[in-house]
Amino acid sequence: MPPQATPLASYEAAAPWTSVPDPGKPGVNIPFLHATCVPGGSVKKNTSAATITKPVRYLLVTTSDGGRLIHDHTGYAKSEICDTSSPLYLSLMCQLGAELAKIFGLGPSSPSSGSSRKAADNKTWNVLAQLPLKYNAYYRGRSNSNHLDLYIVGHDATRFDSVAQFAKHLAWLARSTKETCSCRVCRNERRQVPAAAQRARKKIWAGCQRPVLSGVPSWIGDEEWEEEEEGEEEEEEEREEVEREDAEDEKVEVEREDAEDEKVEVEVEREDAEDEW
Ligand SMILES: [Zn+2]
């Protein structure tokens, strides 16, 4: 029996985390993707498969646009939560890792590679280390079958209900939020929101992220830091504008209060005068 280790338990023991070269761009790393390999990681093909031990490359998407608090399970039952304590978590991470690796062309790992399935099983499996920050996953059973529906929440438009679509969104996060995401949730959202507005909003989220694990390289590369500084200047201007507006409001408020005080004083004087009579 292999140890029933979660990805967390395995990859904390592994080292070091390194940037992942982009197979499509020689000499260039995928900006927000890091990886670490362990010879004996726990993997699971799907929710009903047994846990087995394989060489694993854990993939960590080091930025996020998620907006769901880790303890916010509104709309879901406790039994539907798929976090690190759930027996379904490992298979979800394996499926997302395999799908993400496929999008980037990161080499063999897929647990379901058709005719070469046996061969692929013995190669390194790509496993997602964890969901991006502020994304939560749930599995909900159907009343008339054993089928479990996956929901991943955290996107500010709606929830994901597909591994493939969420992997597309992960790939977009890992590449750069400066581009336009091709996942179904983002595409649907753009029917209401212009692409530029969508990107601008998510850039703020991504810019707020910091490393969550020791030993993980900086979440924001040098190039991105420069970008952020520009963003900070804009934010600074915005802050000043808000402060100016607040100050104006305060001035008006104080003037109004002063005027009221004066009125009261006048009234008091009048009362005093009346008393004298
Ligand atoms: Zn997307």
Account of the protein in words:
The chain has 277 residues and is α+β, with helices and mostly antiparallel strands. Helix content is 42%, strand content 16%. It has 7 helices and 6 strands; from the N terminus they run H-E-E-E-H-H-E-E-E-H-H-H-H. It has helices at residues 7-13, 89-104, 117-121, 163-175, 184-189, 195-207, 222-276, and strands at 18-21, 29-43, 52-61, 125-128, 136-141, 148-153. The strands form 2 sheets. A 4-stranded mixed beta sheet has the order 1-2-3-4. Strands 5-6 form a two-stranded antiparallel ribbon. Strand 1 and strand 2 form a beta hairpin. Helix 2 (89-104) packs across helix 4 (163-175). The longest helix is centred in the C-terminal third of the chain and has 55 residues, at 222-276. The chain is globular. Mean pLDDT is 74; it is low at 1-6, 109-115, 208-239 and 264-269.
